């Protein structure tokens, strides 16, 4: 950013109008910036700029076969990037802006950099609800590719401080919009005329999607990577994670659920939505604690609990 008050790399800036304008200028110049969404913080770059996308992959250390979600301002922008069918339009009408990503056929001449889709014939699209991310897309005037703003495979960030701790000086600017309301990455579905395939569970439940369009919901078999967030090892806190621990070991950082006890209660009241919002912050706290491992109470596997357990299973996978 030019001017009398240049930014230091990795500087956290309150997401006011001036900071959003400065972030947009950086993105138009081919750089990437960290920005809040309602799910997690994203590392945003111009989805039509191959060099900007390369900078995202480099900052994260992300495998090039793992595609990125492209964030759009509205349906007009989305129409220019993908081929839409009736079920996808119905889902967009019901859940956009919001935490739903749809995988659709890539439109010829979309202008999206090839690395965004990792060479696949499809594109993952989301219209975010967070006012800062929406303002940034509008200021740039282009679709923004934005994976989570953290080192690839590590715990996703739900605050600007999490981004700074993970990426530090790898990004020129971190827009601070406070803690993310949802705290889990978006639900991802592949949408075809006759069925939906759930590629990643998230805040919007599969049953709610099916109810809108009356289609069968299939579960991805995991045989190949065809959407973001499908790597078996992900959200890793850098130490062993013990799942379904009714009685945690004495040397473990205890993430509890449904009780006030523990080093980090996800929700003393047993509220799954509250637990989801706190999950990644709890894993960050466990990673920073001196304990050699992390133990997590059983989480009910229904509703958004299915998405929580999906993230925990990936966090518990060791090399």
Walk me through this protein's architecture.
- It is a single chain.
- It is built from ten helices and 15 strands.
- The chain has 319 residues and is α/β, with parallel strands linked by helices.
- It has two domains: 209 residues, DHBP synthase, CATH 3.90.870; 75 residues, no CATH class.
- The radius of gyration is 19 Å and the shape is globular.
- The chain starts with 10 loop residues before the first strand and ends with a helix.
- The relative contact order is 0.16.
Core attributes:
single chain; 319 residues; alpha/beta; DHBP synthase; 2 domains; 9-stranded mixed β-sheet; 10 helices; globular; disordered N terminus
The biggest sheet amounts to:
9 strands, mixed
C-alpha Rg (nearest Å): 19 Å
CATH superfamily of the largest domain: DHBP synthase
Topology order in helix (H) and strand (E) letters: EHEEHEHHEHEHEHEEEHEEEEHEH
Considering DSSP H and I runs of 4 or more, what fraction of the residues is helical?
Answer: 25-40%
Strand order of the largest sheet: 2-3-7-4-6-5-9-10-11
**CATH hierarchy class name of the largest domain:** Alpha Beta
Rounded mean pLDDT score: 90
In total, the number of domains comes to: 2
The structural class is alpha/beta
Name the shape in a single word: globular
User: Residue ranges: pLDDT <50 for 5 or more in a row?
Assistant: 1-7
Quaternary structure classification: single chain
* Number of helical regions: 10
- The share of residues in extended strands comes to 15-25%
The CATH architecture designation of the largest domain is Alpha-Beta Complex
Termini distance? 40 Å
Kindly report the CATH topology of the largest domain.
Answer: DHBP synthase
């Amino acid at each position: 950013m030019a001017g009398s008050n240049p930014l230091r790399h990795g500087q956290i800036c309150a997401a006011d109008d001036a900071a959003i304008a400065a972030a947009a200028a950086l993105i138009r110049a081919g750089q990437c910036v960290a920005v809040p969404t309602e799910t997690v913080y994203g590392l945003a770059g111009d989805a039509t700029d191959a060099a900007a996308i390369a900078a995202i992959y480099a900052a994260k250390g992300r495998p090039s076969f793992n595609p990125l979600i492209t964030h759009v301002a509205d349906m007009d922008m989305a129409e220019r990037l993908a081929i839409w069918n009736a079920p996808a339009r119905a889902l967009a009408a019901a859940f956009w802006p919001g935490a739903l990503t749809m995988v659709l056929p890539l439109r010829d001449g979309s202008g999206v950099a090839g690395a965004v889709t990792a060479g696949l014939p499809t594109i993952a699209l989301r219209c975010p609800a967070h006012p800062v991310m929406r303002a940034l897309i509008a200021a740039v005037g282009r679709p923004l590719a934005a994976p989570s703003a953290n080192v690839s495979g590590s715990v996703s960030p739900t605050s600007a401080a999490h981004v700074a701790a993970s990426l530090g000086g790898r990004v020129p600017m971190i827009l601070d919009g406070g803690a993310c309301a949802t705290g889990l990455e978006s639900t991802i579905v592949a949408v075809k005329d006759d069925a939906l395939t759930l590629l990643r569970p998230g805040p919007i439940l599969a049953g709610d999607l099916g109810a809108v369009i009356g289609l069968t919901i299939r579960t991805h078999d995991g045989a190949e990577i065809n959407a973001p967030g499908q790597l078996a090892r992900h959200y890793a806190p850098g130490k062993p994670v013990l799942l379904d621990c009714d009685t945690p070991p004495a040397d473990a950082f205890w993430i509890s659920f449904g009780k006030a006890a523990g080093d980090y209660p996800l929700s003393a009241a047993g509220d799954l939505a509250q637990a989801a919002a706190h999950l990644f912050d709890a894993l960050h706290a466990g990673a920073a604690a001196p304990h050699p491992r992390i133990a997590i109470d059983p989480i009910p596997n229904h509703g958004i609990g299915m998405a929580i357990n999906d993230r925990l299973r990936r966090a518990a996978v060791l090399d």
